[in-house]
Amino acid sequence: MRTRLRKWSLWLGAAAFLTLPLASWAQLSTFDIETRIGAESHVGNITGHAKDAKADYRRYCVGCHGVLGDGNGENFPWVDPKPRDFQLGVFKCRSTPTGTLPTDEDLFDTIARGMDRSNMPQWSTFTKQERADLVAWVKHFSPRWANEKPGAPITIPPEPEVTPERIKAGRDVFARVQCWKCHGVQGMANGPSAATLTDDQGRPIQPFNFTEGARPKCGDTDRDLYRIFMTGLDGTPMPSFADNIKPDEAWDLVFYLRTFMRQHSKEKELAKQLGLKPVDPNAPAPAASGQQ
Amino acid sequence: MHVKKRLQRCNFAYFATSLSAVSLILVSVVLTCSQPANALPAFARKYGLRCSACHESWPMLNYFGQKFKDNGYQLMNDRDAPIWQNPGYWPVTFRITPIWHRVSTGKVEIDTYSGGVVSGSSLQRVTSSGFDLSGLDFHTGGTLEKNFSFYVLPSSDATASFHFETVMARLDNLWGSPWLNVKLGKFELDNLLSEKRILTLTGNGGIYQLYHFIPVGDGNIFGQMGDNQLGVEVLGHSFDDRTRYSAALLSSNDGQVGLSYGNAYTGFFAASQAFDAGRAGVQRIGFYAMAGEAPTTWLTQGGILFQGANGTGPSAIGNKTFSREGFVGQFYFGPHVDLTVVTQHGEDSAWFGQGYGDLIDGIATANNTTGTTLPAGARNPTWNGVLFEPHYVYSPQLIFIGRYETIRMSQQANGPGSALPSASNLGNISTYTIGYRYNPFMTSRAGFAWHNEYNWLHQDGTAPDGSNINTSELLIGFDFDF
Question: Which CATH class is domain A164-274?
Answer without folding.
Answer: mainly alpha
